[in-house]
Structures are given as structure tokens and as C-alpha cells.
Amino acid sequence: MTLLVTGSAGHLGEALVRTLRGAGRAVRGMDLKPTPFTDHVGSITDRAFVAQCLKDVRGVIHTATLHKPHLVTHRAEEFLHTNVAGTLALLEEASAAGVDAFVFTSSTSAFGAALTPAAGEPAVWVTEELAPVPKNIYGTTKLMAESLCELFHRERQLPVVVLRTARFFPEEDDDPAVRRYYALANVQANERLFRRADLEDVVSAHLLALELASDIGFGRYILSATTPFTRQDLPALRRNAADVVRRLFPKCESLYADRGWKLFPAIARVNVNERARTELGSRPKHDFAHVLASLGAGEDYRSALTRAVGSKGYHDRTFGEAPYPVDTPGRA
Questions:
Q1: What contacts 284, CB < 8 A, 6 or more positions away?
Q2: What confidence score (pLDDT) does residue 78 get?
């Protein structure tokens, strides 16, 4: 089966192409930017280009997108053009080409304001049943693209799996307060508890979704490291998350103290990957327990694939101390 990966210059796209090539699979990378992992340079909104890229392709993994870090630098129309019109063009051409499976990379950002509980409320238990409340054009266009995927399954019987991925980028946090008080490795270790996934685990889930798409027909799944929390922990996570973590992981305190690291005082939401584990067979390896085991062994808790892909950024310029320009109000 020849596969097409869109967005092959990005973190996930490159990781997918790297992994598939390493396994001896036939894969083509497609992106606006020429890279060692990009075989076709062009836009997903160019129908003739897309049709050419899909020749003899049996499976598509669509990761190309404008991201949250582009909110200030790109207009709302550009998000619609890339994230919606581009996805529509790819779906139409994939359907016409008779592909066997289509995997769409969405984001837990699609949940938007639903991820923030009201004052005094417990942390949010984030499952696929949570109703999205988009709070910016990025989340809105990801939801629109998801709806297009579902429509193409219903109307054209295209097997489609939508994967709402948690954070997996290696760049600094977009919140200046977080950057000020926590080391980068500390932040991303903490996030394995409730809203982050390792890139290797995200790639593995995408490949499982590709293989199972024909059997699933249409499905939507959250991808995140497996949380150690339960619903019973949600009230306490808002009041004193550190106490909950220390109860579950007694060795955490000394391992963190040795590095001058700190746990987050409060956690407002918890991503739940149960459906992906049950229906896709996803088995994330890089959870918080893995982090602590790695710290105890003096090893890097990130996967080899994460380290190989590295940090890419999202822009061709810098924005002062910020990794991307989300500290200022955007136009979208």
C-alpha cells in the first residue's frame, strides 16, 4: 500500500515519513516546504497537484494545517483556505482516487472553551463525548474539517478516522508565566499527567488508525498519554493537584526535588484516551510513570523519534522571548 502524508515538513508529518520509510513502507511526503521528507512540493488546495500526488495511493494521513501559533500571523481567511478548503480538496480527490483509508489529524484544541471549568468546578474529564466550544478560528476550522470527513464517509463511504491529538510539539510553552516559573522539561513532564503525548505514541496511533479505518468506517479518538487520574480525582485536581500526584507517585517528590522541578498546583482538565486504547489498540508508552522511571535512571524521558525530529518552530522569524506570537491579541 502506497501512502501519502500531507504536512511532511511538520513535526508529525516528518515523524510519520521517517517511521514508514524505516519500516520499508512505500510513502510519499507532501508539503509546501521542500525537506528530505517531502516528495511533492505544493499546496493541498491545488486540485491538480493533489490528484497527481494521489496516483496509486491507497492510504492518506492528513496532518497539514495552520496551527494555533499562526493565529496572530495569519488571517481567518487563511485558516479557512488551508484547514477547510484544503481538507475538502484532499477528501474529494482521495474519494475520486478510491483510497482505502483516510486519517485526519485534528486537535484537542477543537474542544476550546469546554476545556476550562467554571470557578469552583472540578477539572474537566475530556472524552469524545465532550461538546466542543471553539474559542478561535483554529479550533473552528479543525471542527469544520472533522465535519467534512464525517460527511465524506456518510455520502461516499470513504473510511475516515479523526484523531484529536494532545500536545506533542517540543517548543517552549506559549504562556509567559509557565515559561517564567518552570523549566521546559519540567513543564512537558507535568503535562504527561493530563494533556501531552509523546510523538512516537502519536505516530503509532496514526498507523493503527490507518490499518483499521476500513473496519471502523468513521471514528473520532483522543490521543494523549494515559492519565493516572480517575473521575474521583477531578475535584482535588482543581484544589491541590500536587497532593494528588504525590499520593499516586510517592517517588515523584524526591526525583523532582533533585532537579529543582515543581508540580503544577492545579489541573483544570484531563484528557482521556480510553476509546483509542480500546478500539484502536493504542498503547502509549511515554506516560508520567515512564517519565519518573527515566528520571530515576538518569535518562531522557522523550522517545528517540521525538529527539530525532527535534524542534521546528512555526515561523521564519522570532518574536522576542516568545516561541511564537500568541502573547498578543490576534486578528483571527
A1: 197, 198, 201, 205, 224, 225, 226, 273
A2: 86
Is position 164 within any domain? yes
With 0-12 / 13-18 / 19 or more C-beta atoms within 10 angstroms meaning exposed / middle / buried, residue 298 is exposed
Q: Determine the pLDDT at residue 305.
A: 98
What's residue 66's pLDDT? 81
**Alpha-helical regions (H) of the chain:** 11-22, 47-53, 76-79, 86-97, 137-156, 176-181, 184-191, 199-216, 234-248, 252-257, 274-275, 288-296, 304-309
pLDDT at 225 (0 to 100): 98
Q: Is residue 332 part of a domain?
A: no
Count CA atoms within 13 Å of residue 159 on its CB side.
17
Structural domains in the chain (count): 1
In a domain, 321, yes or no: no
Q: Given this model, what pLDDT does residue 332 score?
A: 33
For residue 83, what are the domain limits? 2-309
- What is the structure's pLDDT at 321? 54
- Residue type present at position 21: R
Q: Collect the ranges in the chain with pLDDT lower than 70.
A: 68-74, 312-332
Helix (H) or strand (E) holding 101: strand 101-107
Distance, CA of 28 to chain centre = 21
CATH code assigned at 100: 3.40.50.720
**Does residue 93 form part of some domain?**
yes
Q: How far apart are CA 296 and CA 294, in angstroms?
A: 5
Residue with cell 503535562: 191
What per-residue confidence (pLDDT) applies to 331? 35
Look at residue 175 in the predicted model and tell me its pLDDT. Answer: 81
Question: Nearest CA to 3 among 20, 18, 19, 15?
Answer: 20
- Secondary structure (3-state) at 303: coil
Nearest to 288 by CA among 276, 275, 270: 270
